[in-house]
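Hi Q.,

Before the meeting this afternoon, I wanted you to have the S-adenosylmethionine prediction in hand. No need to reply - just skim if you have a minute. The sequence and ligand are here:
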Amino acid sequence: MWAGLGRGMIRLHVPQPLAATAPVAPTLDQSRYLTQVMRLKVGDELLVFNGRDGEWRASVAEVLKKGVILRAEDLVRPQVHGPDLELIVAVVKKARVETIVEKAAELGARRVRLVLTKRTNADRIRLDRLDAIAEEAAEQTGRMDVPVVDDPVRLDALLDGWEAGRRLMFCDETGGAPAMTALQPSPNGEGETPAKWSILIGPEGGFSPEEGERLRSLPFTTAVSLGPRILRADTAAIAAMTLWQAAIGDWDR
Ligand code: SAM
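Predicted structure with the ligand bound:
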């Protein structure tokens, strides 16, 4: 839930289909936020989106005990999705995972996949809390979808089921190629820059030598260095997504 910087309008992510005059029932939490925090009354306006039907101007139609009823009025922006970027991150301390999910939403990742690696020492992950963080960050950034956050899986299993045509930007602190060079399309124009990418960030203890070896040997891997200093996992995730968006993503649009 968020008051729009610059445009001054609250932006709310809602699950319901959006169309002209469609009734929209935010959750009880969202309703409380609108009426008790933002003091919205019948007739007041806000923006709603559901990740499918674009961004709509909506008005408060009713304020009931069981929650607010909104009415979708008109389409403000047709649905667009950012580039097909995923962030794959080894589970680290809870606070850092929460920061990583928030930044992934801000930096345009469509999906955050949590992985367990040989050296993962993880706190218990509350997916509902990570979903709420992703939703709030999405509302704040003006994007019209919310990144999906997946339950943790083993890195090996994720690599075994790798999606065809997707490229892996493996952040390798033991010595990948300079990121900006590695992400540039080949100078002789050979080979299109793949449209689907995943960025992989390791745990605080790094990847095990076997995991590193397997990752570097895979045909879809681009191993990159994020510079001479060892970055913490959350810093590395932010740096890698920034470089990817600047080199391949939508920052030139
Ligand atoms: N193993 C490291 C160590 O020696 O303590 C620390 C791992 S680092 C905290 C966590 C992850 O961030 C790494 O597995 C890697 O994916 C990424 N990372 C950190 N610094 C990096 C760098 N300079 N280049 C590439 N990746 C980096």
